[in-house]
Design goal:
The protein is of the alpha/beta class and 333 residues long. It has 10 helices and 10 strands. It has 2 domains: 130 residues, ATPase, nucleotide binding domain (Nucleotidyltransferase, domain 5, 2-Layer Sandwich), CATH 3.30.420.40; 170 residues, ATPase, nucleotide binding domain (Nucleotidyltransferase, domain 5, 2-Layer Sandwich). The chain is 42% helix and 18% strand. Strands 3-2-1-4-5 form a 5-stranded mixed beta sheet, with helices on both faces. Strand 4, helix 2 and strand 5 form a beta-alpha-beta unit. The two termini are 32 Å apart.
Length: 333
Amino acid sequence: MPVNILAIESSCDETAAAVISDKRILSNVIATQQVHQKYGGVVPELASRQHIQHIVPVVEESLAKSGVAMTDLNAVAFTAGPGLIGSLMVGCSFAKAMAVSLEVPVISVHHMQAHIHAHFLSGVKPAFPFLCLTVSGGHTQIVLVKDYLEMEVIGETLDDAAGEAFDKTAKLLKLPYPGGPLIDRYAQQGKPKFSFPEPDIPGLDFSFSGLKTSILYFLRENTAKNPHFGEENMNDICASVQQRIVSILLNKLELAAERFQISEVAIAGGVSANSALRSELKQRGDRNGWRVFIPPLEYCTDNAAMIASVAYHRYLAKKFDSLDVAPAARMEW
């Protein structure tokens, strides 16, 4: 009999549910919250309320699309963190209640480990061990992936995340939320003619706070001379910022690959959808003789299929959780 698991993702502003049967994803449903656009970012209290409204119809649709009856589920999984605590509580509470009613185990999943599992959902899969650069609005890490459930963070940001640098730049340029994809779009029409500094951080760790500050001062200084500077140079500013963020990320990844003598290299997380990051990674892969793995766009942003993949392997390892399990805004690996 196949192992059927319902997985729920509610770490930020997407309510998602997926059903996995053994290693095959049968459904992957996502409800995106539009309410945050007018505020220029995610409002935690509004996010948790939206999750409450969306979770039942999303789960029902996921089960219906999968063709798996609720009574045929072997476990219910959920994102335990990191993320917004109110949002996480909705998914956790729903999953535990459903698991109790069905008398099946409940399985908690680390959100960032799940992003790495996007590489096990389709296509050619990386061989262990491999390096994965996980990049999102809240996290920037280099992870040494030794097995499906054995992972080690070998480098991470000391302050802000790469995704936050994209979003902050977009906000300074008065672009609507979410700004990261818009930076990418404008950058494709511009040239990186402006220079921004690369932080001198030893080892495999990152820092983006200084870059954010330099962008702020650059725009403030030039706008004082020309109030329309940002609008007139939008494409080139975006191209310049994007080039610097990508170089910071991939220079560290290149250093990690050399240090650990690993040629299997992957990216994951929301920022892995960025066209410049994907293109430059392929170029460096060709130059360094890497096997490069880039997830399909549908699995870059938050989704429940990646949660289901981790849950499946935790189920096989009998790593179940008690009903006392609680979500956490910050989580260790």
